[in-house]
Amino acid sequence: MTQHEVTFAHIEDAARTIAGVAQHTPVDQATYLSGLLGVPTYMKLENLQRTGSFKLRGATYRLSRLTDAERARGVVAASAGNHAQGVAFAAQQLGIDATIFMPLGAPVPKLLATKSYGATVITTGTTVEDCLAGAAEHAERTGAVMIHPFDHADVIAGQGTLGIEIIEDVAEAQTIIVPIGGGGLIAGIAVAVKELGARARREIKVVGVQAAASAAYPPSIAAGHPVAIERGATIADGIAVAKPGEITFPLVRDLVDEIVVVEEDDLARAVLTVFERTKLVVEPAGAAPIAAILGGLIEPTGTTVALLSGGNIDPLLMQRIIAHGLVASGRYMTLRVPLPDRPGQLSRVAEVLAAVGANVIEVLHTRHDMGLTLNDVVLQVSVETRGPNHQSEVLDALRAADYTPEVVSS
Questions:
Q1: Whole-number Å distance between alpha carbons of 335 and 88
Q2: Is 1 a domain residue?
Q3: What are the pLDDT digits (tens) for 352-401?
Q4: Which regions of 81-221 does DSSP assign to beta strands (E)?
Q5: Angle at Cα 375 formed by Cα 370 and Cα 380, nearest 5°?
Q6: Cα 303 from chain centroid?
Q7: C-alpha 225: how far from its chain's center?
Q8: Can you give the residue range of the structural domain that contains 187?
């Protein structure tokens, strides 16, 4: 077996090897998502994995296969957070020294967790690519073994153990939705479930999901080879990879049935939906499959499983995402309403809003606004609403009362 080969036997070996470290995470039937798709739908809760993501699987299997001489030299990795924690934890379990390069803007909880597992953390650059360069230089200088986040057969096989678990727990699964960054996770899962599907003489559809700001696979597949893209800003840092791997690319090209792309608003809505409906915390990258469902991008062939790949999220980012998700789902709206400077106008607006069931969250009343005449004031009011239709009802009610509301955010 060469480094470029990933087989089902390879994944079975990985499952046996990592059993004492990585957990067999649960699945949960998602009634709300089942209603949206029209088929039984489950969530594979890998956000409940030790270290908070699937990355522990590939890291544990990769490190377990190092020789004694390689272990003695230590390992080095580059990551925005989840791979860092996976490598650090696996190295701690196996008694291997680990050095992790993380970008300067890495989420604080991920950075602190990586340190807590005993790794030496070096922050450098602003992207994972910067960190990969730093890690490669460190490996060259010290002899440490480079643990790539996705582009190694052992890493791919480790992640593929999720495919075995999914079919063990949802034997009738026909569509599996998986986030894609570099492609290690979906490549491993695809190898596993395609083999298991063939043995059961049925087709299992694998759908990948990328963030629009970092979607390198569609142009790469169109070109027939890995293509580097210029990444945009995305809240889904866990799948923000600029170029597919040399090993992962052909596996994704040949085994993944479809790749869809989701926008930032849908990612925020997905995090909020999972939080509200299941009381679970999931990071934006891990919520990408839910974003694809909410965005109407999934055409299931039958029983569907959406993989929640990780739950490591900075609480401050979670706070912003919830606010953004409320706006994106039509449940929060900020209005600017010019008013004549006369007593009673504020209470009158409040009465109009109350009459249509809009809950006032925040109010700013000022005379100091550009464009106002001496006889005018402006009211900026944020209201909780029940969705886009209710927002239209709120605006219509204000206009019927002779106001001219302007939507600042919705």
A1: 48
A2: no
A3: 999 999 999 888 877 655 555 556 788 889 999 998 999 999 999 999 99
A4: 98-102, 120-123, 145-146, 175-179, 205-211
A5: 50
A6: 22
A7: 25
A8: 8-51+152-326
